[in-house]
Amino acid sequence: MGEAQTPNTGREQDQGDEARTHFGYSDVPLGEKQRLVDDVFHKVAQRYDVMNDVMSGGLHRIWKDILVGKVHPSTRAPFNHLDVAGGTGDVAFRVAKAGGAQTKVTVLDINGDMLDVGRDRAVKKGLASQLSFVEANAEELPFPDAQFDAYTIAFGIRNVPRIDKALQEAYRVLKRGGHFLCLEFSQVEAPALAKIYESYSFSMIPLMGRLITGEAEPYRYLVESIRQFPPAEEFRAMIEQAGFQRASFTRLTGGVVAIHSGWKL
Ligand SMILES: C[S@@+](CC[C@H](N)C(=O)[O-])C[C@H]1O[C@@H](n2cnc3c(N)ncnc32)[C@H](O)[C@@H]1O
Predict the structure, then answer these.
(1) Residues of the chain with confidence (pLDDT) below 50
(2) Using an 8 Å Cβ cutoff, are 178 and 263 in contact?
(3) H or E element at residue 160
(4) Given the CA of residue 87, which atom of ligand 1 is nearest to it?
(5) Which residues in 31-92 belong to E strands, given as ranges?
(6) Ligand 1 binding residues, C-beta < 6 A
């Protein structure tokens, strides 16, 4: 277990090329972080979905359902949705199903291995015609301004080295009236629950990772990166800083995760 750490606000970019940031509990050059994150997700891509179920006891499904309930895609009009750091497609599939034939979802991720798993799953689920997969960086979205009705990022933003840049890009590609939604790990508030959660995260999760995938290290990073993410109030301020209005958040499961919301008005 590590000592107290400074959260990764993504503001380190202001300090120039020599800036440093966190990779889990390690201090790394800002320019190195993405490669290290990519290594983690290359290693876990094939077992990512099964590990999500095992680690969260299936809770991630409920959290994603609640997230998509807030997206609320139109079932009658065209709806253009972007799911960033979309990985193997869990959120995108839910949005596509909730909306119907006129809902188009772009799944964007920096990691081709995660997207490959997502593409296969989309075909098996009969959703391929509503989905497109784009390999790109959340910090530099390859889309013109004002394209999307809604933007989601689930368990992705804490992996992005320059969070400020990703938020600015989210704002840029949303239409006026567009909705930004982010599902991310947060701070458990009740001290008793926090203690249980802490010991579960640091001992059980890497162990389960090793038993199921043969690798403990990627799961140690996942747990550490959760602790480095800014508290919900601070992240809300970052969302406002990017230009979003009516920024708010809802804690779920005692604060294990939070859903952040902001509007481009
Ligand atoms: C924990 S997974 C989340 C996947 C999916 N959203 C879900 O909830 O199951 C994090 C994803 O973020 C992606 N990612 C990390 N850095 C990124 C970046 N800079 N731009 C886009 N995606 C990124 C990783 O490749 C990985 O697929």
Answers:
(1) 1-6, 11-16
(2) yes
(3) none
(4) 27
(5) 79-84
(6) 34, 37, 41, 84-87, 90-91, 109-111, 114, 137-139, 154-156, 159-160
